[in-house]
Structure formats: structure tokens, C-alpha cells
Amino acid sequence: MEFLCFLNDLPQNDFNTLFKTILPECYEKLESDKGRDHSPYFIVGVPGSFYGRLFPNRSLHFVISLTCLHWLSQATGEA
């Protein structure tokens, strides 16, 4: 099974540092734990504000947000 992960942040933030430093460590850890015979996975940077739409309808199967809720002053009421 393939795994696709989207990382979101504002466009002016530095995605390059993320991909140059953190992701190589993730690949190394995966290979040390699972060897080279693991399912393929892909990591993508998606620039944009979470106040707007970032993905097409019905394109995501699972979503987790670890930091966005503290930025909201109230619930939007949208489902």
C-alpha cells in the first residue's frame, strides 16, 4: 500500500529546510527499521492558509491537524 503525506504551511515559510533536514532523517529511520523492502511513501509540501481550501473534494482519506485549532477564534460552522 502506498502512503501519501501532505505537509501544509503558509507560502512564505521555508519548505526547503524541511525537505533538506527532517525528511532525510525520516527516510533513514524507515530503512533502518524496515529495510529497503517497505511500501513506497511520498511527502508533499502544500503552501497555503488553512482558512481556505487546500484540496479538491473527496481527495483525502484521513486528515490530522496538530496545530491549527489554536488559531481559530470560533468554529466556522461548516461541515
Features:
79 residues; alpha+beta; two-stranded parallel sheet; globular
Description of the structure:
GO terms for molecular function: methyltransferase activity. Pfam families: Methyltransf_7 (PF03492). This is 3,7-dimethylxanthine N-methyltransferase. With 79 residues, the protein is of the alpha+beta class. It has one helix spanning 15-34, and strands spanning 3-9, 41-47. It is globular, with a radius of gyration of 15 Å. The protein starts with a strand and ends in a 32-residue tail after the last strand.
N-to-C CA distance: 29 Å
Number of strands: 2
SSE order in H/E notation? EHE
How would you describe the shape?
A: globular
Continuous helix count: 1
Oligomer: single chain
> Strand order of the main beta sheet, please?
1-2
Q: Roughly what is the average pLDDT, rounded to an integer?
A: 82
- Helix/sheet category: alpha+beta
Rg over CA atoms, rounded to whole Å, is 15 Å
What is the helix fraction of residues, given as a range? 25-40%
The poorly predicted ranges are: none
Residue fraction in strands: 15-25%
For the sheet with most strands, the description reads: 2 strands, parallel
